[in-house]
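Convert to structure. Protein one:
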Amino acid sequence: MAYMQTERMKRGNGMICRISPSFKQLKNPLPLYSPRYIYYRLLGLLLESVGRLSKGIDTGFTHGFDSGMTMNYIYINKPQGSLFIGKYLDRIFLDQVTCKAFRSIKQIQSDMINGYLRERSEKATFIVDLASGKADYLYDILRETTSNIEVLLCDISESVLKESRDIAKKLNLGNKVKFKQGNALDTENLRRITRKPNLLIEVGLYGIIHDDESVKRHLSEVKEILNPDAILFNVQTQNPQIELIARSLKNQDGERCVWHLRPIDLVVRWAEEAGFRNAEIRMDPFNIYAVVLMRG
């Protein structure tokens, strides 16, 4: 009903290897007569109808499966839905490997941020998250640390930032957290951040940017304009559910949710060309995401 592993298999040299469709193949529609088209089309219709009894699936179709709202729901990992069937479907949704990977990298990101704060030995630290969502994991860090931290949360969605403001107010963290609406890829938006970050965060961003040159240009602009002491990002390197996501689910714009998988070495090289160095890389247990911390 929910996400399923759908990669084609190829046998060679006595081994079975998964072959994922390329980004170009995922971008192109399947022929109407293709059995795969029929399968993914019917699955999408089922998910968008009966599946919406699940709160997680409904959140995905309402806000986009690539949205901060959906990511935050997956992080919480508490099945909700209409009637028993809705909660049952939601548990299936939350137990998919992609969702498990999301939750794993949340912990990895928190661990790497806490390690960076320990390195600074209680020095004042200014953190900027350029595509923050609600930034639940940063609130967890702020509650648990004794470090002197100020945070600027930026997101393209004002509704997401409103939810985040409510969290900050509830946790009495309004003096530590500021908010700014804007597109992370907008050069002028970057220029409006006038204070140099010690740590810049942009997790979950590169996978939804389809054009390689846009990622490369963005990294160069981040280095030139903001010049952070360190940058934290993640890269989706492979995903056994990538075709199902691309052909049956919707993104924030209501279009097919096509994610761009990239080799971690490629993105690290782009960051190095922009001026970052000393990549520390950690993979999630499912080998879907790499989380990278680099120095400015």
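Protein two, convert as well:
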Amino acid sequence: MEIKYIAGNQEIENQHVKNGIIRNQNGKNPRTKHREVNSQEARNKIIIFQKLCNYGMHPVSAAAALLVLLAACLTFFILIFLIAYILVKGIPYLTPELFSWNYTSENASLLPSLVNTLSMTILALLIAAPVSIFSAIYLVEYARKESKFVHLIRITAETLSGIPSIVYGLFGLLFFVTTLGWGYSLLAGAFTLVIMILPLIMRTTEEALKSVPDSYREASFGLGAGKLRTIFKIVLPSAVSGILAGVILAIGRVVGETAALIYTAGTVAEIPNGLMGSGRTLAIHMYALSSEGLHVNQAYATAVILLAMVLAINWISGMIARRITKG
């Protein structure tokens, strides 16, 4: 009997030790954690029940909520359908010949267009992003709020945002290609794209800077920091997510642009020797293949690469924004 009693005590102690280890590892007792999960589920059910009761008492609100839900579901399904359709149509035709260094009528290679797209995007952002961001900083941090000059700049930016891309293309053809004598070149296309994305980045940066609380600036001034240091050390890091959102939208417009670049960068399917050479981007390459009707399957494959490129740029931009915000 004594042996059984000692063994029973030992088993109880082992069980207490195990519970202690689990409690130390997870921070909470598993039973307590289970009860918290159950209580959270109960609260969620109560909230859902209360919402259903409120909708029953207000049919108009219920109808509006239903329409919003249907619109969200419709948007989601359309997006999924488009992505799935492009992937199904294009992935089977992603062959090694499609990534040949030189374009021919047999392989319909997209690699020259991919290189031109990256070059065009980087060049346009290197010019447009600093100008747009510094313009937004001036409008928010330095300019007088009721200034007529500021009002004129904002009206001009909003007007430029609504101009069709074909108009930008014609302007680029007349000014950069003809008047300045640049010809059909990457530089002419990049400067045309700069004019297109300047208002977009500037307006999104301006809204991002406005969203930073004034208490941040006041605290920085109270600690003795100057205006410039406050902007670069406090305001810009707090608004970096909104600024990068505008940059991502600008990248999407640059990558998907066709009309403006046909008139400025040309449609030559090769990698130019320099900025003054002509070359087509992925969007123009896809348009050319589909309009000719000879390489429609390769056009779908190009769309897959274009989609993957945009997703990769968005992921990289989001990762940079998170690191800057944490750092």
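DSSP finds 13 helices and no strands in the chain. Residues 1-28 have pLDDT under 50 and may be disordered.
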